[in-house]
Amino acid sequence: MSKNVLIISSSLRNGSNSEALADQFMKGAKEAGHNAEKISLAGKTINFCKGCLACNKTLKCVIDDDSREIVEKMLKADVLVFATPVYYYSVCGQLKTLLDRANPLFASDYKFRDIYLLATAAENQSQTVKGTETAVQGWVDCFEKANLKKTIFAGGVNDAGDINGHIALKEAYETGMKL
User: pTM above 0.85?
Assistant: First the structure.
């Protein structure tokens, strides 16, 4: 059965390593027959959440910016994939801000069940991604029908293109194929 897969690439750097992981995941998903779309947060205007919680009643944020369209796509996706560089052992600020602004999903009838995390970092220790995974898991825990299915981490990559040849690219592709 074909799934709707939404991949959110949060790096603002062109040709980033985390975007390369996102592209490979998308390639695998498409080749497996799924509908896959990648949204880059680069160039998007996503303002900070005001904490007003009006979205819990209206199912829509009061702030009119690019997050509205992205959150609507998140609502309709069967699978969510978050691609992020690791900044100070957590998700990058752009992804954190989007996750905060996705609060209207909490009270909605969201479709997503499986969530994947694709992360890259200059540091190559296994614990490097733990804070990033904890941040995403904290968001996922708010959605009782969803689960963080898998984390794919590429460490030891700093400059754009450093990921070329990294085993994580193959893992991202294969994971997309197996959805």
Answer: yes
| Residue 6, φ and ψ in degrees, nearest 5 | -115, 120
Domain boundaries, the chain: 4-177
Q: How far apart are CA 95 and CA 80, in angstroms?
A: 13
Superfamily of domain 4-177: Flavodoxin domain (3.40.50.360)
pLDDT tens figures, 35-84: 999 999 999 999 999 999 999 999 999 999 999 999 999 999 999 999 99
How would you label 120-133 residue by residue, b for 16+ Cβ within 10 Å and e otherwise?
Answer: bbeeeeeebbeebb
Token duo for residue 1: 């059965």
- How far apart are the C-alpha atoms of 34 and 177, rounded to whole Å? 9
